[in-house]
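Batch 3, record 17
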Amino acid sequence: MNAKTTSALDLDQSKYNFIDPESAVYRSAKGLTRETIIDISRHKKEPDWMTDIRLRAYEVFLGKPMPQWGGDLSEMDFDAYTYYIKPSDKREQRWEDVPENIRKTFDRLGVPEAERKFLAGVGAQYESEMVYHSIHEDLAKKGVVFLDTDTGLREYPALFREHFASLVPPEDNKFAALNTACWSGGSFIYVPKGVKLDIPLQAYFRINSENMGQFERTIIIADEGAQLHYIEGCTAPQYSTKSLHTGVIEIFVKRGAKVRYTTIQNWAHNIYNLVTQRAIAYEDATMEWVDGNMGSRLTMKYPSIYLAGERARGTILSIAFAASDQHQDAGAKIIHKAPNTSSTITSKSISKGAGRTSYRGLLKVVKGATGVKASVKCDALMLDPQSRSDTYPTMEIDEEKVAIAHEATVGKISDEQIFYLMSRGLSESDATAMIVQGFIEPFAKELPMEYAIELNRLIQLEMEGAVG
Amino acid sequence: MPELALDIRNLHAVIEEKEVLKGIDLQVPKGEIHVIMGPNGSGKTTLAQTLMGHPRYVVTQGEARLFGEDLLALKVHERARQGLFLAYQYPVEVPGVTLSHFLWNAYQASRSGADERGKKNPKEILAFRKRLNASLESLKMPADFAMRHLNVGASGGEKKRVEIAQMQMLAPRMVIMDEIDSGLDIDSTKVVAEGIRSLKGPEFTALIITHYPRILEYLQPDRVHVMAAGKVLCSRGMELARELEQKGYDWILKEFNVV
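Prediction for the assembled complex:
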């Protein structure tokens, strides 16, 4: 295996644990008030409607209680965070123009290298702003828009306003409201009718500062018959206090279009990762969430798909890995709103060293959505007796003419499998790693090869620590 | 005295405090093929798994040597790296892991004899894959089997053949085969027997646990041992296997006063 970093999404935590010297050009006052929000909005020179929706969202945020389900949020202190840090005055299209210390960070993370090798476009967010955004020229010529979200708002105001917060309104949940109030950065993507991207676009999110809140907002619109694959990766250094990452992602998959959104989040183990991801798929469209949760202190994330047009298809494929200080509360939601729609949910979770994983899912079929086919499969693997895994599946099926399959397993690594592999010469840790890699194979095989290799390498590293 | 591949003296083992091996004595000289027969529950599979090091079985007395080395002091994977191979009666399924990937890693591990893997030379991997495909073909297996997940969804007969393919690829010095011929039809038995026979030679030693002499007609074993109640009762030539098939075990159990 190539020892040099070839992947922007390298999964070995120790590699990300470096801190750049503070060099922000602007940071908002600590804590969140109306004034802070107005300040952020002014700083971004936004139209009034955006300032207004931010302030409305702030009221919603204040009005909603903390969720009492899912993970433990009791230590979260909203006054301790800095909600907006502007690392640089400009966002660049050439790495040479990105401020040196930030460029070095992304170099170290292998982002420019990955871009050269196998990506159609890259966005890099550092703290609150995208500092780099670039797309292959030929795609730009075909009318593909790949911008940071702030620029998207400026350059495509009508398209932006039509879609922004239409799938995830601030009222949806407390953290969606928080994001809407103080969002900054993220990607704004539009792929015109019939345009198909055959290599992925990628966004990379980095938090550097301590006690920082990162609130990216991503909007993806795939017009009729368009296709794209978007990958996001996330890392941060380890601090003793807990930072907050709260993104909102809204995806619109028009008739016959296809979108795949892949996340490999490997946040430091002190990050609260509370993200709302939602997609709507129209007639004959396909939406796929491929969701890998390896990092963070607590993740609460349930990618969802509204299958709104006939024959739309939805797939949610996720893995969660929880080590000793982690809780991955992840899942999936699919709502069948039209006839002959189909969906597949596959969830794989692994917990070790008192780590905790939860699967929380919703499968809903509305009355009249006949001919729906859906399957849900959740498998949990616990590597030791201290670990914990829970499953909270919800099904609301209001139509009778449907075919639904549901399967859930919770298990330990089988001693017989370990013995079998060891009896062929593999050490116990290699045997364990191989079984775990096999367990997540349905996920790994959907990743670009570079990431699959890194994922397997991470599992290998984790197992060396897990087995005596 | 020829060199002993396997030398078992007074071996006792318990499972959950129940003694299942009650003083096994068995010697297999290098280059020979030996057979163990015996009624169900006599401890044959226990012996095989104990020699491989299954944690469920605890050795309480006696010793077992592999080419003179203390087998019982080694961990399971170290036994494999010393050239011991167990072909299982019921090979386990490992979802998500291809036969090819698994076997390449096992091959690398056994060859280096250490945890560091050899360099992943693409030429070597290619050569390995070719050999694996040739092995599978000789066992009349579908060409894509190397890329299928290990034993997942395979029939009983396919699993047995995959065991033989692994044996051919890893080239062990001492092989224990636990009912490799159970559940196979005549044609499959022949294919499996041919697969084993291809390995016969002065460097290949085998201990075959079976109920049926059919496979033995292909392999022409040097010695047949009968096990009952956790002990080896007697050791004779091939004619004993034929006699047991015709007459069953009762007479020999009586002869040795085993109830």
